[in-house]
Amino acid sequence: MYQLAKAFLFKMSAEKAHHFTTGLLKGLFKIPLIKPIFKAIYDYKHPSLEQRLFGLTFTNPIGLAAGFDKN
C-alpha cells in the first residue's frame, strides 16, 4: 500500500500533496469510530515519557524535525 501511495503522491508537487493528505485525513476523521480506532492503535502513554517545560506538562517528548515545521 505504501508503494501505491508513494507513486500517487510523488506525481504531485510537494505543496499539493501536503494539502491533499491533510484534507484526506480531515475527512477521514469525520467518520465515526475512526478517531477511537487510531487512538487505540497509536496512542502510547508512559510516565517516563512525560516532559515538563515552561510550566506545562506534555505526555510525550515534543520537537520538530527539519522539514516538519509547516504552519
In brief, what are we looking at here?
This protein is mostly helical.
List keywords for this structure.
mainly alpha, single chain, about 70 residues, two-stranded antiparallel ribbon
Task: Please write out the topology.
Layout lengths: L1 H8 L4 H15 L5 H9 L8 E3 L2 E3 L13
Mean pLDDT across all amino acids: 89
- The overall number of domains is 1
**What is the radius of gyration?**
16 Å
| Assembly category | single chain
**How many strand units?**
2
Major sheet attributes: 2 strands, antiparallel
Uncertain residue ranges:
none
The general outline is: extended
SSE succession:
HHHEE
Explain this structure to me?
The chain is mainly alpha-helical and 71 residues long. The chain contains three helices and two strands, in the order αααββ. A hairpin with a 2-residue loop joins β1 and β2. It is extended, with a radius of gyration of 16 Å. The two termini are 28 Å apart.
